[in-house]
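Hey, I was hoping to borrow your eyes for a little while. A protein chain has come my way and I'm curious about its shape. Take your time with it, there's no hurry, and the full record follows here:
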Amino acid sequence: MATGADRIFGTAERAAGTSVTKTYDAMTAAWDSYRTTDAPSRLEAQMTDALDTLREAVDRGAKSEVAQAALDAHRATLDIQLRYLPPADIDVPRMDIWAQQLRLDAGARRPSAVVGDVAVLETIWYRVRHAADPNTARDISRILAELRTAANAADRSKAAHVATDLQQNLTRLGC
């Protein structure tokens, strides 16, 4: 489920500022259209704050802040989609976002944040693992155990590598 935030995150990683701005503009236009019709106030504030923060980061050319703001906007998008889709349809993309967050936190040398990211991933997985086929469930559970070990050892490099492996395996669940 690709969103504008996905494209911004990928673009931010490649540091292609012009493309980030165009994607931001498209997201803002879509958001402006949606919020006039159906946005609850809490979700409106969450998305508006995320997009404002994203704009400021883009304007400053702050690559890591752009990536973080894009993830925050993506999380807000999923929270909005929860109004229309079953939670199970949102949880796998949410795991993908948290794996991206873990990679960002590992790269920023925030070991305690990495530990927290793993806890969130484990919690979400607990909610959705019943829907996975047994082989996929076994593989993702193994990967999460590897992530926990790397995070507890403060091995940020290993955690980032394993988070990438997790993202690749999440595609088996439709992410």
Summary: Residues 52 and 69 are 9 Å apart (CA to CA). Confidence is low (pLDDT under 50) at residues 1-17. Residues 17-38 form the longest helix (22 residues). The chain has two domains: 4-81, 88-173.
